Write the C-alpha cells for this entry.
Amino acid sequence: MQFLKPSQHSSFAGITFGIVMLTLFLPWRVAAEQFSALSGQPNTLTLRSFTVEAQPDQHIVVECGLGVSDARSVRALLRDGAVINLTCKLVIERLRTLLANETLVDITEVHQLRHDPLTREFIMLAPNAPARRDKKLDALLAATWEVMTFNAPLQTPLASGETYKVRLDVTLQHAEVPPWLEKALFFWSWDIAPAASFTQEFTY
C-alpha cells in the first residue's frame, strides 16, 4: 500500500494522512479574477475542506466543501428570479520536467440553483442526482455545495514517487439574463462572484 505525501511545495497548514488518502484543509492558494460589483461588496467563493482518495479500481474520489461569503445576496437574487450556475472543473495532472504535464482527470460539473415562487422553495439541480428542495437556502447549500463529491476514473494509474497537481476551478454565474434586466441596456456581468482556482500538489 502507498501513502499520499504532500510535495515540498505544499501550501497547506494542516494535513491528515491515511493509506491511499490525503486530506487537505485551508489555507489554499487561491487565484481569483478581478471582480467589481455593481453595488455593495463582491461575493467570494470559499473552499472549506478538500479530500483526495485513490481507489483500488483506478478511480479518484474528490470531496470538497464550497461556500459563498454572502449567502444573503444570493438569496435575494434567487427570489428576484435569477437562475445561478456553480460550475466546477476538476483537473489532476502528473507533473513532468521535460515534457508537458500528463492529464489524468479532466471533468466539469454544473450545479444549478433556482427559486420556486409558488412553493417558496430553493431548488438545487446537480448531475446524476435528484433535485433537492428546501425553504431555507443555508440548509440547502449545507446539504449540497458544502458536501460535494467527484468520482472520476484515472486515465493512467498513479505511480509511486510521482508528484501530482490537483486543480479545482470554480465559477458562480447567472445561467440566464435575470428577468429585471431583459430590457436593460446598461453594463451587466454574468459573474456573481470572482472565478476562483484552488491548487495543491502531492506525491503518491
Q: What stands out?
A: Confidence is low (pLDDT under 50) at residues 1-40. The longest strand covers residues 102-116. The helical segments are 71-79, 137-143. Residues 71-79 form the longest helix (9 residues).
